[in-house]
Batch of 2 targets.
Target 1
Amino acid sequence: MNKKQLFLIFVFFIASTFVYSQSGNNIGPVVRFDGKSGGNITKIDMLKVDSLTVTGGTYSILSFTFSVSNEGKLKEINAISGKFSPKIKNLIASVTPGSKVYIENIKVLDKQTKKIFIEPSILFTIK
Amino acid sequence: MKQQLLLIFVFIAVVANCTIAQKQNDNKVSGYPLVSFDGSIGGNIAKADLLKVDSLTVTGGDFSIFSFTFTTTAVENLTEISSSSCKFSPEIKNLIASAKLGSKVFFENIILIHNPTKSTMHAPAIIFTVE
């Protein structure tokens, strides 16, 4: 076995292991609100955000339900994209400290396989 | 001698790469908990299906459910019940039984315990609409 053959084998193994290590990098959709999956947030910070984001592959957000609990009542708005409509923005503007904001029933489309996923809900408490 | 050294170098490089690749994939698969309601994490659900289930379940890693808050719009105002295990108390079951079409059911503030270390973490809320 000469040096050239050895070098080729070396390159082949490196390339194959690199491909193997990358093959699992499509970890599935991860939906976030300004990088967050929930927790405490101010109304001002909520109002700064115009849409949900999805990472982890070639995905797009099909729809979600935006709900706010305020003084024992629940108000909800359905969205048909990842964007926050003026109605949702108005609902955010109406929240008071202690209100809970639920972003749920988040449906994500895998553009390659055309499969639809329901993603974990995002829950914020207004501080 | 040079050829032997090259062989050893190739061997070490391949083993190291395979180990790193395996470790990366192991990290993706194991150790991350997923809390579900009978395998579901939200969406629309029939009341009969809600009533069939007696507890939340956690998969992926050595975790237990420490507590959660059950909230529902089944009755006129939002009603909250805290639970200190994965199980649904008779009170929770009764509220589910009174749910109507379009009622919302929230399992939120789900706290998990990592059994080996006893550290805690929050899991995403599970939210259903009764259909």
Target 2
Amino acid sequence: MSGYENRGPGPERSGKSSAISEPPYIRGLLLAVALTFMGIFLIMPLTAIFLQAFEKGIMAYVTAISESETLAAVRLTLLTAAIVVPLNVLFGVCAAWAIAKFQFFGKNVLITFIDLPFAVSPVIAGLIFVIIFGLHGLMGPWLSSHNIRIIFAVPGIVLATIFITVPFVARELIPLMQEQGSEEEEAALVLGAGGWKTFFKVTLPNIKWGLMYGVILCSARTIGEFGAVSVVSGHIRGKTLTLPLQVEILYNEYNFSAAFAVASLLTLMALAALAAKNFIEWKSGCY
Amino acid sequence: MSIEVKRITKTFGSFTALRDVTLNIPTGELVALLGPSGSGKTTLLRIVAGLEMPDAGTVIFHGEDTTNLSVRDRRVGFVFQHYALFRHMTVFNNVAFGLSVRPRKQRPKQDEIRERVMTLLKLVQIDYMADRYPSQLSGGQRQRVALARALAIEPKVLLLDEPFGALDAKVRKELRKWLRRLHDEIHLTSVFVTHDQEEALEVSDSVVVMNEGAIEQTGTPDHVYEHPANPFVYRFLGNVNFFHARMCNGRARIADIEVEAREHGGADEVPGIAYVRPHDIEIRRELSDRMGVKSVINHISKRGAIVHLELNAQGNRELFDVELSREGFRALGLRKGETVYAILRNPKIFFGVGV
């Protein structure tokens, strides 16, 4: 880091001017509304998850999360993330690069399509893949004659998750790369650097915080995705259940403490992602 | 290393940036590409650098056709308008970049790189800032880093895109003097783009005046200033007054006076325009002969060392500007509303096309 900070306005100017500052009771009211809302809709449920998870004591919790089915769900979730996130990074960087640095026919169409998964309901995303790869789908007969299983198997889960998470990295990088322009890359080329060296020494360092931010959002969504995965998974215990699906199954079987124990795992992952996101925001802010 | 540009044409969509441009730049010269925005000067510079491909025509470095040589193999030093410094690297690493990305076999050793970078930073007088980041530097300092970085690869030619465009007036003047001195020291064939005629005339060995994708005139600063090829060049190279003129027996009638105009070659009764620079007009209270335009002083404004007058010619009501030195102005004791005679020295008269 540069060690250089733009500290902005000095302390004497940091307060708002008195003309636009509200009287104390309004400030108090606003704060109370915000905190109450957060308490009811965020803190309380979050606490409830952990209370429920530990309802039957720490031993029951440990048993619940070390059950083989749960571990299989953890493995599948992490495997999905390990495939989906790198692919999204690759796609996101390529798409953002193309959109930010080149003019080409169909650019606006590409930008619109990147946003599509945000607009489409996850259930529909899942159904799309069933229609294409399902037994009675477009490619179903060909796939089954070659003994390839996509729907109700891991490949389907991966495909559906990729569809859902496509926008995360690209959306993060496009505005960043557009703002930075391509002058630095041109400078690198003039100075004799090849394409790869230019990318790794100039482009990548400039976008690294945006990229990490996108990766974290993408990972969080991959781990937590429910709807699309639920359609293509087939709910085969110990085989095609990701963590969110595992939670649902346990809950439907009235196995509440186990359901909440697994849910607490998911929550911890989400909190870790949130912490990482904040760290990156802080880090890129002082860059 | 000489640069030859032959019959270059370049279009962007429906916009023609350059049309059939041919230009020769001899070894060791400092050349200014001068023109208004949209005249194609930056496009020409980028084509010479290899950052842009021409639609037609060739670029020749020292007798060798480089049109199809990639940017990285051309070994040109390029200084970008907004410097394009690598924001995540220190000044030192910015300058060292060109050397450290070379293939392993051609790459100098670490301490050689260090030595060369420090020498360059001393040359551009910012060696004490080697560990800073670009965001911590002023505009002028960034410009120097950009220049040092371009020089680090020992380029065969140096190309600068609006090198002083983003700087404030005072720093700009200092830096262009410094660039001139630097060029006299290292004698690298250099081309810079500018829209500022003062900059072009002050710094360069020769000026290439461009307009609408074509070259209007090429020559030394003195030559293009004293002998502009056409009205565009005349207008672009400084403030100018113009008067309607008409040929009559080899003499041109301008307002209520006549001047010798044989060399301008207009036929009788052909309308034309006479251009006169504001500092080429002499003001007199009285006249012994009838060679001055009788005018009224409309407005007086004093700016620095020069006094600007706005005059209204009595004969045809044309307004024109005059620049006087402060002493000249004081000696005459001129006042607003007075009637005086303006003697046009060195008028340049153009007839026909472009008038």
